[in-house]
Each structure stands twice: as C-alpha cells, then as structure tokens.
Amino acid sequence: MKTRAWVAAGIASLMFGAAIPATLVQAFELSRGVIVDPGRGVVYLMNREHGIDATEIASGKIIWHTTVAAEPLLLLDDRLVAQAETPAGARTLQITILNTAANGEPVVSAAVPLPAPVFASIDDGMSTSFTADARMASGALEVSWHFVQRAASGFGRPGSPLTSEVDGAARIDLKTAQVQVLPARNASTRPSASSGGIATANIRLEQGFNFAIASADGLTILANKAAGIDATGWTDYLWAIYSLQTHERLAEIRMPTSAAPFFVLSSMLVYVSRPYGRRIDGKWIQEPLELRAVDLNNGREAWKMPVRDPAYRGPLPPRP
C-alpha cells in the first residue's frame, strides 16, 4: 500500500546544483511557530506536546526540548522570543526569552496585559483566534497581537459577519523585563511566500512549468506542473527549484502537493506538509501537520517532524 508520505520512488529527474551557503540569509519564519536559523542549521518549532523543539536541519535530530514556552516568534542571535502558555482565565500574553545556546534555558519572562474580552490562546477556538508577532524596535522588543472573535453559527448569515477584532502592542525591555503598553494599532500580518514582485525574467522554465511561490528565505523560487495521477488516485506534481541569485535550476523532484512553504539549505529541501486524511485500500490514512525534509542528493525523505496545529478542526454548531 502506498500512502501519501513522500517516497523516493516519486523522483522525476533529480538534479542538485550548487549548495546555498547558510551565511547568505538571516533567521526567518517558515510558517507559524516554525523559525529557521540557517547559520546554525537549526529549526525551532512548536511541537504537539505544547513545547518547543530545537531540531538539526541536516539530520532531524532534536537538540533540545523545552516546555517553558510553546510558540517561537523571533530569533535574536542566540535568544529565541517565544509565547508561553497562558493559565486559564488570565488576561495576559506571556512572553519568554530562551537561550538557544544553553538548551533553551529561560532568560527573561514578561506578562503583557490584555483587555477584555481578549485572551492569549495559541490554539484557535471555534469562534476565536489570537496571534502574536515580535520584532526589534528602537533597541527594545516590540510584541504586537491580534484577537478575533466571531459568532459561532452552523450556517451563513446575511449581511456583515458578527465579528469583533482587537489589536494591541507592547514594548518589553530585554534587560529589566519591564512592559510598556503601546497605543493600539493594526497588528503586523504574517507574510506569505509568493512569486509576486520577484524578478524571474532571467529564469527559463521548461514547457508546462509555472512559477508558484518563493521560498521563505527569499533565495529560491518554486515552479511546478502536474505530473499525473499516482496509484492511489492523487495528483503528483513536479517541483523545479531555481536560485534567484544565479537563476540556475537547483533541483527537479516529484512531490505529492502542488506547492508548500519551503526553503533549501545546503542539499536539504524542507517544507510544510499540511494535515490531510484519505481512505486508501479500505484504510483511513490520517497525517498531521508536519515539517518534512528531503535530501536533494538522493531524493529520499530524510526526516519528518510533527508540528502543533493551532487551527480549530473540531465540530461546528448544527444547522437549525
């Protein structure tokens, strides 16, 4: 039985060009809760046990694990800014700074006050969601957040949706952990990788390929085309990955999805595999949200790691 886990037999024509030096790019966010440090070859991700794993990109080995914090937000050299779990009923956003060079030991913790009805849950509820972002501004850590509350309903309502949104921000002194609440403003939006606005004129695509998305680090771009139906009835795709610096094609590989957030480091292709479920040969196959790595030297999946999925996937109210 063939499942939709990526397998080496899916390779089309594998070609891996010059390696991408890790020093060319700073730390970046691959997807929510997944921060990549290319210089050290490490990815920090929120795991399904409500903690953070520091994982070696080359091998998939967990270097250290902590439950002091839960969602990575920003990497500042060897300091990882993360959101911690908030106790039930507390109206605070818990921020913890971890020392990545000391197995994730906490360095600074701060509690950002939140107004009612806001609460800082990492996991979405049936009708609520909370997201936080972090950045450095004027020598201090600035944390912004966005809270959405919707009317829970089993059917669409005419007119405007019953939704309330609240934004907020605070500045945290990294030495004293002192918190200064800032005037409300629109919370920053998490960027999504796309090919829009990227110079691709010098990249010559083979017939049938179309540009899909840029990598999360901005160094490569993915072009794709459908590659036919596999034995399970799913459509496979050919990924052609090009360097945006040299315009060379680095690899061409057969994959089970048209596109996904990704990056290439040295010879490793790392991408986000969305959760899915399907009946194959009479058996229901369920795969969670995962980070997967493919070695472009041989086309084999090198490792995969489950990632905490904050999206609400529970039942909805019945239709009246």
Polypeptide structure, described:
- The chain has strands at 28-31, 34-37, 42-46, 52-56, 62-66, 71-76, 79-83, 92-99, 105-113, 128-137, 140-150, 163-172, 179-182, 210-214, 220-229, 235-243, 249-255, 262-265, 268-273, 276-280, 283-287, 290-295, 300-306.
- The strands form six sheets. The protein has a five-stranded antiparallel β-sheet with strand order 1-2-3-4-5, with no helix packed on it. A four-stranded antiparallel β-sheet has the order 6-7-8-9, with no helix packed on it.
- The protein is mainly beta.
- The protein folds into two domains: 8-22 and 192-306, no CATH class; 68-182.
- Mean pLDDT is 85; it is low at 1-20.
Residue stretches low in confidence (pLDDT < 50, at least 5 long) are: 1-20
Strand order of the largest sheet: 1-2-3-4-5
Number-wise, the strands total 23
Number of discrete helical segments: 0
What average pLDDT do the residues reach? 85
Total of domains: 2
Give the topology string: H per helix, E per strand: EEEEEEEEEEEEEEEEEEEEEEE
Question: Helix fraction?
Answer: under 10%
Radius of gyration: 21 Å
Query: What profile does the largest beta sheet have?
Result: 5 strands, antiparallel
The amount of beta strand, in percent, is: over 45%
Give the termini separation: 42 Å
Q: What spatial form do the alpha-carbon principal axes imply?
A: globular
Would you tell me the structural class of the helices and strands? mainly beta
